């Protein structure tokens, strides 16, 4: 199981730069970059809330659950 962050897609749709989004959300560019690149281990709900507010989207537009293909095939057998 993996949760993928589609922040780059939402930023492109809104034509928003990393620096601008970081300022509006109130986090550092470095932390936003970690989140955008899928390297974050956790996301605060307050940060997710602010991202959704600024990007005018729902959490499901940013976060995507991916089932592990290897796990699915192993349990299917």
What this model shows, in words?
- By secondary structure, this protein is mainly alpha-helical.
- The chain has helices at residues 7-13, 18-25, 29-36, 45-55, 59-62, 69-76; strands at residues 2-5, 63-66.
- The chain has one domain (2-76): 434 Repressor (Amino-terminal Domain).
- Helix 2 packs across helix 3 (29-36).
- The two termini are 18 Å apart.
- The mean pLDDT is 91.
CATH fold-level topology: 434 Repressor (Amino-terminal Domain)
Principal-axis shape equals: globular
Largest sheet: 2 strands, antiparallel
**Uncertain regions: pLDDT < 50 for 5+ in a row?**
none
Strand runs, count: 2
CATH architecture: Orthogonal Bundle
Please, how many helices? 6
GO molecular function: DNA binding
InterPro entries: Cro/C1-type_HTH (IPR001387), Lambda_DNA-bd_dom_sf (IPR010982)
Pfam families: HTH_26 (PF13443)
Protein name: Transcriptional regulator
List the helices and strands and how they pair.
Blueprint: E1 2-5, H1 7-13, H2 18-25, H3 29-36, H4 45-55, H5 59-62, E2 63-66, H6 69-76
Antiparallel strand pairs: 1-2
Helix pairs in contact: 2-3
InterPro entries: Cro/C1-type_HTH, Lambda_DNA-bd_dom_sf
Pfam families: HTH_26 (PF13443)
Protein name: Transcriptional regulator
Put the structure in a nutshell.
With 77 residues, this protein is mainly alpha-helical.
Features:
77 residues; 434 Repressor (Amino-terminal Domain); 6 helices; 2 strands; DNA binding; Lambda_DNA-bd_dom_sf; Cro/C1-type_HTH; Transcriptional regulator
